Amino acid sequence: MAELILHDDRAVVERRPALGYAMAAGAAALFGVNGSVAKVAIRSGLPADRLTEIRCAGAFAGLVLLAVAAWMPELRVERRELPFLAAFGIGGVALVQWTYFVAIGRLPVGIALVIQYVAPLLVALYARVVLHERVRARVWAALALSLAGLVLVVRLWQGLAFDGIGVLAAMGSMVTFAFYLLMAERGITRRSSVPLLAWGFAFATLFWSLVLPWWSYPGARLGAHASLLGRLDAHQLPVAALVAWVVVLGTVVPFVLIVGALKHVPATRVGIVAMLEPVTATLVAWIWLGEALAAVQLVGAAVVLAGIGLAQSAR
Prior knowledge:
This protein has 13 helices and two strands. It has helices at 17-43, 48-70, 82-106, 109-116, 119-129, 137-154, 164-187, 193-211, 219-223, 239-261, 267-273, 276-289, 295-313; strands spanning 225-227, 236-238. The protein has one domain (17-313). By secondary structure, the chain is an all-alpha fold. Strands 1-2 form a two-stranded antiparallel ribbon. Helix 2 runs antiparallel to helix 8 and helix 4 packs antiparallel against helix 12 (276-289).
């Protein structure tokens, strides 16, 4: 899930666009694979909230190490900044992951991601309606395209064809992702992306630690072995290995790639490349988990992505 894309232009380096695009595509691919890995972990019996909790804690540890190594001065904050960072960490970082994990536990991974990825259009609507900013005409065309695509994706004419809680969770991930983007856009004016996210994950970890104390963590589940499901059903891995993937290869490594990509490619183009995530996630879920989508749903997903790409190009 590529909710970690932030614009960080503080470092002045020699731009190498090919490397930047490769890094962005690699990050999108890792985020895409992460959806299926997380789904297997959840289906093994590890609750979505507990997976979110350990992902936040692990990512916090990794990001703090990165921030200490390269952005130490920007880790310092003033007391008046703490409410903003708490809102960013809880309302954005913590809840966007939880709602996404709930959604993929009940819906096909590709469907959940396509719904979540409408968030940038909610940001455009917020800018127009609440902030009274001028929004380019193509953004409204993008919104119309994406809504039309969603109708096809969820096959609305058949009624609610999917798990109702799953759809609500996916909509929740869309709203919290939009909140995350708005808060990140404001926060990145004060510090670089790594320190900002380190603080965000710190508050997310604190939030989950209070809601779900660590002494009640189902540690026995981590030591159990889980079937990889789908076409890999005959194979098993420790749940701890799946969680390690979610934390390291599903969060920290792709984020490092995104930060690196932003040094070589403008943020708008990185955002467009990031749309490979739902494509990758859908392909991996089909090949691995056997989550086949109907032709009309694939068309709908393509229409949604076209709308999002149009919106990104208007930035």
